[in-house]
Design a protein that fits this description.
Layout (H helix, E strand, L loop, with lengths): L1 E6 L5 H13 L11 E7 L4 E6 L8 H18 L21 H14 L8 H9 L2 E5 L4 E3 L7 E7 L2 E7 L2 E8 L4 E2 L1 H6 L6 E4 L3 E7 H10 L3 H16 L10 H22 L3
Helix pairs in contact: 1-2, 3-4, 7-8
């Protein structure tokens, strides 16, 4: 099956092909094999035309499949700031978003201020972190992050819900629901760890993504935060491993494990951010 998409002339073709391929591969009913392929097929009067070639498992669901691909394409292009241009004979009037960006930033600052990992940062540092981060939309069923993938960023869920799941013995196990105001992906942002779970949008989600480069600048301004971050990460790791709830583990052993994990995370932070 084939779907055609017109894209702005200013965007490099290989970048567009990667985006369209990613959108189609995750769509409903699209087969993993044969693989999705994307071709540049025409230079039209107002756009570069690409064709997505894909194979589907059930041809009776063609409308649902085409809808899923086109929906994913819209969201992927939106996140990548790639325009689907209007015909050149059409007058396009740009209007301001109904919700000012400053409101989103204020909401994100409030969320980060209540997040323990960011308690060591000043209000101005948090404001700087937020103002330079990306705001993105994800559509229903899209993966925001994928278990096992490389990562160097974290996310703030500003609007919408998302499901957290992990893979186990070939099955997908739901483990949590994220809601507006929740943060996720902190370990990848601070240590470069691979994603430990998949987060998939329940409906339309609006998220802020904070990247390693921006976080690195903030940490370099406040090196005293490193110890506090290391201690918090160590505590989270001990909670995940059940050490803090294990009655058989003595206070002395817990304290020793806390020191060990803190030192490990401190070294990882320094290495990851080249400090």
């Amino acid at each position: 099956m084939r779907i055609r998409v017109g894209v702005d002339y200013n965007v490099p073709p290989n970048r567009v092909k990667d985006v369209l391929m990613r959108a189609a591969q995750t769509a409903v009913n699209v087969l993993a094999e044969p693989k999705v392929r994307v071709f540049l097929v025409d230079f039209a009067d107002h756009a570069v035309i690409y064709e997505i070639k894909f194979y589907m498992g059930n041809h009776a669901r063609i409308n649902e499949t085409n809808d899923s691909i086109r929906t994913n394409v819209w969201y992927e292009l939106k996140r990548q700031r790639i325009k689907i241009p209007y015909p050149i004979r059409t007058l396009q009037l740009e209007r301001q978003p109904t919700k000012p960006r400053t409101e989103d930033h204020e909401e994100a600052r409030t969320i980060l201020r209540s997040e323990p990992l960011f308690q060591c940062l000043s209000d101005s540092q948090i404001a700087n972190l937020v103002s330079r981060s990306d705001l993105n939309h994800f559509g229903r069923g899209e993966r925001v992050i994928e278990e096992g993938a490389d990562g160097d960023s974290m996310f703030i869920l500003l609007h919408g819900n998302a499901q957290v799941s992990v893979a186990k013995n070939g099955s997908t196990i739901p483990v949590a629901t994220l809601r507006s105001g929740d943060c996720f992906g902190e370990m990848s942002l601070l240590t470069g760890e691979k994603r430990s779970a998949t987060v998939r949008a329940d409906g339309d989600c609006y998220v802020m993504e904070i990247g390693k480069d921006i976080m690195g600048e903030v940490i370099r301004e406040s090196p005293e935060c490193l110890k506090q971050l290391s201690e918090l990460l160590a505590k989270r790791r001990m909670e995940t491993e059940g050490i803090l709830k294990d009655a058989a583990t003595s206070s002395a052993d817990q304290a020793a494990k806390q020191r060990e994990y803190t030192a490990t995370f401190l070294n990882r932070l320094k290495t990851f951010f080249a400090l």
